[in-house]
Amino acid sequence: MLSFIIRRGFGMLISTILVITITFILMQLIPGDPASVLLGSNATPEQVAQLRTTWGLDQSMPVQFYRYFVNFVQGDLGQSLFYQKPVLQMIGQRAETSIFLGIMALFVVIGVGIPAGVISSLTQNSWTDNVLLLVALAGASIPSFWLGLMLMILIAGKWHLLPSSGFTSVFETGNLANLKNLILPAFSLGFVNAALVARTARSSMLDVLRADYITTARAKGLAERVVVVKHALRNASIPIITVISFTFASLVSGAVVTENVFALPGVGSLIVQSVLKRDYPMIQGIMMVVAILYVLVNFGTDLAYASLDPRIRYH
After folding, report:
1. What are the beta bridge partners of residue 79?
2. Domain 98-276, what fold?
3. What is the DSSP letter of 297?
4. 3-state secondary structure 197-215
């Protein structure tokens, strides 16, 4: 297991270096000059040139990349051109909202998707199975922002059961009740992705339930709960974990839209503001944090594979 972790850790390091390089190059290819945007159309060429020199934008790409890479290794993602604050500090201020939103949405994905898929597989071709498949199809077809707007209109606007927008820091106020502001956006973001998990869980469980060892387990008189949870679900979990890890990408990209729909002060809304303002250091910093999060999720997924199926450790 240790050698497996070392191999995957080395791969994670290589992936991180590649992500840093690709992210930097892509940022350089974006049209527009941040110095010109910040100073406005009335700025003189001398003022623009002076600001570019101050920010180091007049240096060659290799020099800029070297400086960026060294600063990144030291934990410095640069300073925002427009907020005039360290990028890492700005991301940290917005991270609480996005982290809570992502965790709550993931709870919806797992808490709705896996039970629905298991129940659907155990009741194949019944009315329960058909209803769950219909709900899963509807969930996969509905855009998360549309579902969020409908929830805002009904639950927040008409029935006044939950807040429709905004979020106040839990850490600053010490009030966990603030999390109720994230229930609607988390459900709208998680339900759409839960549909894919449910269909995958159903398909994987159906394959496993037809296996000979499941028939043997039942013939031995094991309780159905033991057969389903210990034998069937465990062996069917690798495709499910794969989909859940891929779902993380949808949660991150979907959060950009969801945070703007619900006016949440998260990293997603910060991305939109930074792109509109051509704040290159902020865009680079956010992309790097998200990319590293992807790498860590993939690393955790590999470890989950190895713990569920020891044969994977030797590949």
Report:
1. 86
2. MetI-like fold (1.10.3720)
3. H
4. HHHHHHHHHHHHHCCHHHH
What average pLDDT does range 183-196 have in this prediction?
90
Over residues 66-94, the pLDDT tens digits come to 888 888 888 888 888 778 888 989 988 88
**Percent of the chain residues past pLDDT 90, beyond the cut:** 17
The count of C-alpha atoms lying within 13 angstroms of the C-alpha of 105, restricted to the half-sphere facing its C-beta, is 31
- DSSP class of residue 152 equals I
- b/e map 32-68, b = 16+ CB within 10 Å: eebbbbbeeeebeeeebeebbeebebeeeeeebbeeb
Domain spans in the chain, listed from the N-terminal domain onward = 1-82+280-315, 98-276
Q: Using the 8-state DSSP alphabet, how is residue 180 labeled?
A: G
Please identify which residue in the block is written with the tokens 């590949």: 315
b/e map 215-237, b = 16+ CB within 10 Å: eebeeeeeeeeebbeebbbebbb
Helix (H) or strand (E) holding 170: helix 170-173
Four-point Cα dihedral 88, 93, 99, 100, nearest 10: 170
Say whether pTM exceeds 0.85: no
